[in-house]
Amino acid sequence: MKFKLALLALLSFNTASASELFLFDQVTAFKLGSVQHSLSGIEKYTGQRIRIEWQQSPYEKPQRLDRCIGTFQQAMNQPERYYLHVELSESTFISCEIGVKESLLVN
Description:
Residues 1-18 form the signal peptide. Keywords: Signal. By secondary structure, the chain is α+β, with helices and mostly antiparallel strands. The protein has helices spanning 2-16, 63-77, and strands spanning 20-32, 36-43, 49-55, 82-89, 92-100. It is built from two helices and five strands. Strands 3-2-1-4-5 form a five-stranded antiparallel β-sheet, with helices on one face.
C-alpha cells in the first residue's frame, strides 16, 4: 500500500510539473510588469497569433528573465532571421531560446 501511495504521489508530481514550449516565428510585442509578463507573436508552425502570459513568483530569481530580455528584443528586431522558443511551467517562466531560421542555414 505504501508503494502504491508513493508511486501515485510521484506520478502526480511529474504531471503537475510538466512544461509547455511555445514556438514563435515572429515576436510582435512583449510586456514586463512588476509581476505579470506577456509575449505576443506569430506561432512558428500554424502562423496563428498567440499571446502567452506568466507571473513572476516572489521566490523566482529575476536573473533568468533578465537574461532573456535581449533575446526577446533581438527576435523582435530581426523577425526574418530568428525564431524564439519560450518554456513555461504552470504560468512560471522557465527558459528562452533564440535560433537562426532554417531557411537561412547553409547545407
